[in-house]
Write a structure and sequence with these properties.
Chain B: Pathway: Protein modification; protein glycosylation. The complex is a heterodimer of chains A (262) and B (135). Chain A is α/β, with parallel strands linked by helices. Chain B has 135 residues and is mainly α. Chain B folds into 2 domains: 63 residues, no CATH class; 50 residues, no CATH class. Classes of the chains: A alpha/beta (262), B mainly alpha (135).
Chain lengths: 262, 135
Amino acid sequence: MFLFQNILNLIILLELFIMGDANQENNKYTILLPTYNEIDNLPIVVWLINKHMTESGYDFEIIIIDDGSPDGTLDAAKQLEGIYGKEKIVLRPREKKLGLGTAYIHGLNFAKGNFIIIMDADLSHHPKFIPKFIEKQMEEDFDVVSGSRYIENGGVHGWDFRRKLISRGANFLTQLLLRPRASDLTGSFRLYKKHVLQHLVNSCVSKGYVFQMEMIIRARQMDYTIGEVPISFVDRVYGESKLGGSEIFQFASGLLYLFATT
Amino acid sequence: MFFGTTLHYHYRLPLCLGYRSRHSDQTHTSKKKKFLKIIMTKLFEWLSALAILATIWISLLTNKVENSFSKEHPKLLLYTPLISLASFGLYAVFAVLYQTLNFNNCEEAAEELLKDINEAKTSLAFEGYKFPERP
């Protein structure tokens, strides 16, 4: 009887040791990169992710979800798969442009990591911030870590006065109406626990970049904890970035929708 | 029944106008027990606050509540909503302008990115990446 209890204790101790180890060391970070016509940017983003993740020693994989880009982004991705290996670069292309929300759901199906990082592949989000997101997450075991352009040490580059005014005005209005307790709602550089992202993606209905707004608002609504990291947003070096009437209309209707439903 | 009773927030409230349902599952949310709280949509919160303010204003205006202020400054009281709206508008304009003018420009980040791009290109070419030819 005594011996039996000793053995049982030993097993429990061993199990705790193994599980504790798993919690500390076996974190894996999956980076989802939805792309459309990013042949110039994609190799550089991947190279930078690899550099910063390898330097800081985190286990990671990159899932590239290309929506049938006509410029050959997929071929570029295949070359990168050849260079970095199938463990690091996972290609999950789709036939045609199907939208951001479904791209995340699609990518999530194949993600092996317990944390998911979402970012734009157009170099406006610098991969050097990813280790900072991870450190922030570990600080207080946050469910979501959101990059913010609007807090101290954050910012934007390449925006004229008009663009800045619209962005700040929209942010002011959002903060006033929704009181989201997160400073950057339309930014899309974020880290999520995998199950949290799954839960959020399934409960969000918006399209386009209002989707990013809804995700963080719903996260608050569901009592998930959110940490923030300042990021510098450098507007597209290659390619065109747009902010026209249709984007503003999209934003306004999204804001009203969230105002009335959350 | 109502005060001081600890109930989990998944306690179902009757669904009426303005109450939003919380579609969260227990397993993923915070572990703390919460007091029963009424969850309103932001729209409903705004409407309630406005209704309360309007009630106070109208009761003062029609002198339903005895007070010396409304007798001494009837004009001021009448225009209070307009004055507060205008001053809030002014505050909003200045706040947004201030934030816009102080929006960090990140010149260093842009320079660093250009350097990183060049480094990446050299390194990628060395590792065998073939950049597509541009016309």
